[in-house]
């Protein structure tokens, strides 16, 4: 394991106390941690964990779908212009400055470029007669050189050397040959090519296979994919595609396998795009689906991953589909049409969510506090009539500051839905204290997932006030702890966040709180299965962040019973931390949730050590539960909270297996490293 020690800030310890005394005493030990922490586990179950606690979230943001779960290797194969907003264009130009001249001089749609600049401008963008969507590109051959277009791409050569290409073409004049190739970016050497006779005068789909020799391209090495016309031939092209031969229904097999391994119960297709998404754009023949800008995030939306593709993915991973219906620009009638389409294409349970973050002015068609109740009631009645047995979620606000908004929902529509959604996404480097040290930010961040617990109690009490106790539960349909912005481009590594090892501790802390409140919370969706706290792909190398492994370890306890736990862990207080949970008391250093499997045979201990410096020996007193065999543990830890996985070292921070000696005569005991997650499983009777 790479050693990556970071400066720990101003940290002192008084005697045996594991406290963090930082500038202005903003974080202080409230109760010292003993030399050996004792955790007592009771045998009487408190409540059962709903399977839906372990769901995740998928949205067309960043490279979650395009460039992520999609196996497509090309960008903008439809050759459309105007698909990126200014911010994203600036980033693309920084990464590939050569695109600036290409765009200015030829008009070739981004991120395609001329195959050879020396051939000059031999391109004409056509509008209105495309094979796909609106635009297509005419390539005009020349006798002075090779005319064509190319695009920088990466290939998953670590697992696949064969690639299936397709292109729509229409012959204009001259020789009819097209050449598709993979080329070295350094030497322009052709690494693989296929020749096509595109003689038809009307739009026709052509296919080809490009096969690399072993070793021709290295992992993480960029190449160019090129389309060229033969000699002085002229052809119009559109809808170019390149897929690895091992793609599964157009999906990346590595991403698909890692998503399945999460053991998700449900997968949510939702997010900001939901407020303007019209489902008919994403169904039917892929060639006829419109290509447009995703206005929520300023990126292309090809509509190739629509309802049918999402349902296919859910089938592959064994997850219940959760659809976020358009309550922004949409209507109840449109929602019902979508529900009926889904019913015709999916035989099984479906979860429907009515809108997304409609309290936010960034949402298309956002609602006021007064509008949300009546609007939700109208949608809920319409959807319930079309799908009487479906689970309905409505767009709540909270859990910390959503009382007024949630009141409108509960008052107007409380008897017409099953779950009240609450989003819990907080930045871990936005402390109320100015100029916070790294240790302060870490300790304050680790407090957040624990400190939100009482607010779930308050939401439950508000639900009870409206007479729907036991009928309406809470659903955290997005939860995430981020540093600065959301995307890869905006990520900073200065605090525990979804990209680093500290994020694994954050995720475990939140799940522990959710499990303790699983009698109130019926469903959660971690943000997200692809990107954020889940699975990433960079330069065609798939990997997962540490928080993914926390989720994967925890998801095995679905259906277990939560057992009572007492601990003399020691606690600390936070003042000036992350708003709105900036002043919190009694945050435990050692946080343990205990569960027992439905058959009673397995005890699981979900353990967190929030201490910034101390490895804590912990003794587990199991009381009436008798150990029936050795304990097995998996542990996520690192020398520094800032360590992370990436495409270079995709498995740098992963769970490490441990065997823990334990029997009827040997007490269960284990040392929990500082800032770590440990899951222990032991047979009991």
* Mean model confidence by pLDDT: 93
Largest sheet: 8 strands, parallel, barrel
**Which consecutive residue ranges, at least 5 long each, have pLDDT under 50?**
1-25
Helix content: 10-25%
CATH topology of the largest domain: TIM Barrel
Q: How much strand content do the residues show?
A: 25-35%
Name the CATH homologous superfamily of the largest domain: Glycosidases
Please report the total strand number as a whole number. Answer: 36
Structural class: alpha+beta
In spatial order, strands of the major sheet run: 4-15-18-19-20-21-22-23
Oligomer: single chain
CATH architectural arrangement of the largest domain: Alpha-Beta Barrel
Given the C-alpha coordinates, what overall shape results? globular
- Number of continuous helical runs: 12
What's the end-to-end separation, in Å? 38 Å
* Gyration radius from CA atoms, angstroms: 27 Å
Number of domains: 3
């Amino acid at each position: 394991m790479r050693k990556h020690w970071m400066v720990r800030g101003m940290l002192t310890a008084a005697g045996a106390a594991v406290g963090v005394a930082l500038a202005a005493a903003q974080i202080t030990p409230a109760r010292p941690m003993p030399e050996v922490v004792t955790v007592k586990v009771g045998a009487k179950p408190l409540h059962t964990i709903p399977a839906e606690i372990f769901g995740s979230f998928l949205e067309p943001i960043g490279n979650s779908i395009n460039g992520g779960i999609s196996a497509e290797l090309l960008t903008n194969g439809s050759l459309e212009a105007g698909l990126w907003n200014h911010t994203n264009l600036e980033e693309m130009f920084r990464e590939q400055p050569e695109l600036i001249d290409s765009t200015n001089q030829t008009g070739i749609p981004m991120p395609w470029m001329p195959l050879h600049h020396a051939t000059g401008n031999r391109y004409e963008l056509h509008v209105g007669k495309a094979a796909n969507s609106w635009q297509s590109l005419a390539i005009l051959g020349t006798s002075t050189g090779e005319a064509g277009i190319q695009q920088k791409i990466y290939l998953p050569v670590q697992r696949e050397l064969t690639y299936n290409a397709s292109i729509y073409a229409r012959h204009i004049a001259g020789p009819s040959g097209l050449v598709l190739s993979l080329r070295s970016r350094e030497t322009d050497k052709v690494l693989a090519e296929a020749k096509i006779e595109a003689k038809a005068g009307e739009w026709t789909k052509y296919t080809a296979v490009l096969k690399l020799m072993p070793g021709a391209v290295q992992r993480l090495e960029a190449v160019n994919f090129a389309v060229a016309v033969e000699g002085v031939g002229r052809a119009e092209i559109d809808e170019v595609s390149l897929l690895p031969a091992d793609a599964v229904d157009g999906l990346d097999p590595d991403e698909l396998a890692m998503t399945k391994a999460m053991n998700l119960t449900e997968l949510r297709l939702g997010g900001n795009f939901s407020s303007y998404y019209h489902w008919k754009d994403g169904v039917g023949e892929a060639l006829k689906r419109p290509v447009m800008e995703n206005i929520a995030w300023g990126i292309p939306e090809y509509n190739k991953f629509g309802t049918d593709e999402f349902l296919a993915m859910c089938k592959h991973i064994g997850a219940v589909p959760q659809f976020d219906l358009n309550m922004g620009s949409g209507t109840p009638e449109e929602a019902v049409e979508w529900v009926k389409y889904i019913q015709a294409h999916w035989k099984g349970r479906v979860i429907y969510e009515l809108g997304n973050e409609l309290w936010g002015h960034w949402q298309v068609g956002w609602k006021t506090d007064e509008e949300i109740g009546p609007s939700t009631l109208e949608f809920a009645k319409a959807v319930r009539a079309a799908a009487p047995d479906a689970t309905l979620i409505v767009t709540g606000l909270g859990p910390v500051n959503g009382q007024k908004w949630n009141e409108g929902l509960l008052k107007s529509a409380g008897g017409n839905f099953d779950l009240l959604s609450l989003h819990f996404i907080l930045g871990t480097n936005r402390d109320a204290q100015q100029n916070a040290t790294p240790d302060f930010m870490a300790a304050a961040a680790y407090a957040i997932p624990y400190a939100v617990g009482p607010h779930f109690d308050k939401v439950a009490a508000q639900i009870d006030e409206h007479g729907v106790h036991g009928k309406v539960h809470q659903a955290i349909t997005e939860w995430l702890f981020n540093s600065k912005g959301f995307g890869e481009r905006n990520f900073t590594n200065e605090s525990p966040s979804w990209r680093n090892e500290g994020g694994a501790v954050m995720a475990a802390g939140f799940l522990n709180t959710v499990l303790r409140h699983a009698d109130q919370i019926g469903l959660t969706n971690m943000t997200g299965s692809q990107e954020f706290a889940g699975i990433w792909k960079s330069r065609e190398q798939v990997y997962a962040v540490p928080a993914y492994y926390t989720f994967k370890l925890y998801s095995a306890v679905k259906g277990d019973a939560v057992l009572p736990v007492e601990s003399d862990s020691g606690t600390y207080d936070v003042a000036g931390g992350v708003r709105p949970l900036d002043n919190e008391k009694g945050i435990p250093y050692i946080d343990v949730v205990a569960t027992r499997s439905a058959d009673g045979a397995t005890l699981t201990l979900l353990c967190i050590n929030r201490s910034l410096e101390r490895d804590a020996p912990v003794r587990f007193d199991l009381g009436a539960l008798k150990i029936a065999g050795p304990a097995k543990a998996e542990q996520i830890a690192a020398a520094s909270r800032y360590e992370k996985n990436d495409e270079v070292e995709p498995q740098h921070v992963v769970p490490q297996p441990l065997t823990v000696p334990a029997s009827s005569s040997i007490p269960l005991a284990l040392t929990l490293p500082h800032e770590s997650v440990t899951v222990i499983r032991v047979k009991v009777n």
